[in-house]
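Retro notes, item 3 of 5
We never archived the inputs for the glutamine complex last cycle. Fixing that now. Sequence and ligand:
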Amino acid sequence: MKLYGYSAYELLDMLSSGKCSSAEIVRDVMERAKETQPLYNSYITFNDEGADDAAKADAVSEKRGSKLRLCGIPVAVKDNISTKGIRTTCASRMLESYVPPYDATAVANLRAEGAVIIGKTNMDEFAMGSASDTGYFGAVRNPVNTAYSAGGSSGGSAAAVASGAAVLALGSDTGGSIRQPAALCGVVGFCPSYGAVSRYGLIAFASSLDRIGSIGRNARDVYLLHNIINVADVKDVTSSYKKISFNLKGSLRGLKIGVPGELFSPQISDDVRAAVEAAVMTMESRGAVVKYVSLPSAEDAVKAYYIISSAEASSNLARYDGVRFGYRTDNYSDLSEMYRKSRTEGFGDEVKRRIMLGTFVLSEGFCDSYYKRAAALRTKLCREFDEVFGSCDIIAAPVYPKAGISLGGSISPVECYSADICTVPASLAGLPAISVPCGRNADGLPIGLQLIGKRFGDAEVLDAAYGYELARGDVYDRA
Ligand code: GLN
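Structure as it came back at the time:
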């Protein structure tokens, strides 16, 4: 088998026993990435220096007498995470030729452990969307079936891992953007507790919600990647000093699982509901205890999420005015025309919609009835989660209401937003949440099980996901 088909753990074993070299891994994965690019459009930019980076990782490992923890492992990085010397576009015309002069902390952590940044992955523009189809570089197609979207906004990262075009990937999750594409492409995606991974170098969408997280083909690989980026960082004031150090055990005995009715609303399709319920029963058969719980405010979480995230986006994106950052229009007669035309030409429709919505909900006269109410709902939802976690260890729910998103389908923005019902509650509350594959529908499209943990209960979430994979039998699907 070609090396791109192995998990990170297997590759690291093969490397230490001399069965393959870092150079061979990088070569195979890069070849696979380039060969699949016309099919799935997972990448925006390839890093052709990968082979040199693998050689450097080998040299450092040699010198210190033991392998770096990710020595020679090809990792894809979502294109809103800054990479020194490698173009970082946020899938926007606005940043089409932006090359960051520094690495995001998460990227620096990866490089320090010998990981090879294989390229920058395609996404929704500024991470706004759920189908990786709002970006300037075209939509990402699902490797399972190319008539469908890879999901979004980290669609390129999920599609790359699913197709062997990367072994591991970093994504970002503001309202579901790691979990949803992971579910739709049939891989594992983990959104850690807010504060567990530094946001330094992540290009901001909605700062109180944005998180960097890990995508891999199984829970162990995701655990490996998460442990490397779970580092406190003085460059991000919201970064936490709680380092989550633990070993995966995978035992489900006595695990109290809460099942909230609000996240199994009639909007959830029958095939998704059946697969998620079956997954919960599998966990029960391994000794977990299931309890029906309630999160009443989750029903309004989508509204609160779109108000808060758009408000923050309208402020964060004000910096793109053509003066210091990004695209500047060619023709203008005065300063205000330069601002207006640069923003009009540089941003796509979805980004403009969010900026307008965000500006409106913050404007005088409307702020109280929109932004402040949304913030109050967020606080209420956090309390409801606290209460549920008083008697449960983990919450189980679907990730996305349907098993597939058809590409080119014409759904309205509101329909698209409402499909975030299952992922935004954990986003608003800053809780860790993972998506693990739990079956396929009749058309062969993957379905994800979401497990949500307490704040800084990241270890429990990863362990429960691993336990579920063991109970499910097949630990991962090869690329
Ligand atoms: N679909 C959500 C949105 O469009 C989530 C995006 C994300 O998590 N980055 O805002």
